[in-house]
Input
Amino acid sequence: MGQWHAGEKRRTILNDEAAKREVEERFNTVKRLYGDRLDEKQLEGVRTGVETIVRASQAVSAVRLENGDEPFSVFVPYREEG
Amino acid sequence: MSDSLVFKSIRQLGGLVQAREVSPTELAEVFLDRLERLGSDYNAVVTVTRERALREAKRAEQEISSGRYKGPLHGIPYGVKDLLATKDGIPTTWGAAPFRKQVFDYDATVVERLGAAGAVLAAKLAMVELAGGGGYWQPNASFTGPGITPWDKNRWSGGSSTGSGAATAAGLVPFAIGSETGGSIMSPSSNCGVAGVRPTYGRVSRYGAMALSWTLDKLGPMCLTADDCGLVLDAISGRDPKDPTTTRRSFIYDDSDVSLRRFRFGVMENVTDHVDEPTRANFERALDVLDTVADIEEMRFSDLPHEEILQVILFAEAASAFEEIVDSGKLAELTAPEDRFGAYPRVTVLAKDYINALRLRRLVAENAEEAMSPFDAVVAPTRSGVATPVNQGFRSATLHAGKDTMMSLGNVAGLPAVSVPSGFSEEGLPTGIKFMGRAYEENTVLAAARAYQAITDWHERHPPDLLPAG
Output
């Protein structure tokens, strides 16, 4: 299992331009799926929401993880109790 | 007699019921009347379950008369956040207009367990629509109106367990059940000046509860005292095959005397940097008080991106949990304008980011365990400020924009916490202090909160206009 060290970063956070492109690409996905039911003001709110998600995702991605660092949710095969 | 039953603790009411000085039916009538008469003042109630309450009260009365007393909850009325399924044709609305007529044909496990303990379901309590699943920005985000704290009708009670906090603080029920995914028990407990417990993840079954985020959702009690929270948690906790996340570690409430116990508390460095003045002042006074029963040391957690990890997990799971609601177009019927589009962006969370957040969650949990292991609890202000005005947005307009590390870390790592009142602002608004412990240490944090309440009287103060006459 890998170790996390304070301040250690896995990779550089997307620069502003790359982040803007990322936001636009994801925003366009929402617009394509649901745009017909949202007005302009709501779409601006969606864009803000996408920015929050991209920022959070970048912060998560910026922390170094080792290959062996597993997700905390562990799959357990099911067997009926009793 | 009836007025004198209001604002009594479960422990006190249970004693009266056991001694047959008050009957469960009398108790039910007192609180049903208050729910019906005062509930709308605080937008705290969705449905008063009068018929079911009187039926359960009568059954409790018969059991007690025949010598089958079940314990301190027997015959005690309560309310549940309206995201817990209830049968008997009682609606379960999730606080959301599109679901006002939703009915289930079964009781949530928590409701079943409280029934087995003899408690009496008196109300389904108001909540922020979809428990905040729309991403609300301001208090007016429920079809029952903005939750109002009984301490000031212009201030918010939530959220998202708005009704559970307000109904308990207003003496409409002796206790209530709330839920927390990212602060929804702690926040209303602080805003309403009551005690609330966020149990360890998996301690309480969520079967029959609306899912917002499967790996973050928790159910817990909101009461007048920490001791009462222990009594309720004892009844609702435990393994449930219907909720595979429930732990096999048992919880038996330890209510032993804490007067001779000396605690060791940690305080996160710079914890008051982003809190308002009354909250900071009351927290510092609370530390002075706690100094008489504890050794207190500064500590720190890792600088992992706790809030962002919480967001990614919550957004990804909510996108799945609410996929049908989103696709159906029902979001357009929600009360808060921002909730009508707030869930759409979540479809853009990438699978690898969700998985990475779950991988970081282990590091968060391991780091928290190491940082907290020297302490019985880490203490902090429950919220960064007093209750927000009901007509004010709290995300953009907040003065206290600092990250709430204790909230994010505690929920990501699934750690237990108890919030109790720590004082009031000059305007008479309550503030709270939170004791957060290591996983499965509910008894330790409850003991700490009980020790604090034994040497303070904030929990004995109630909204002046709601006190019994005379």
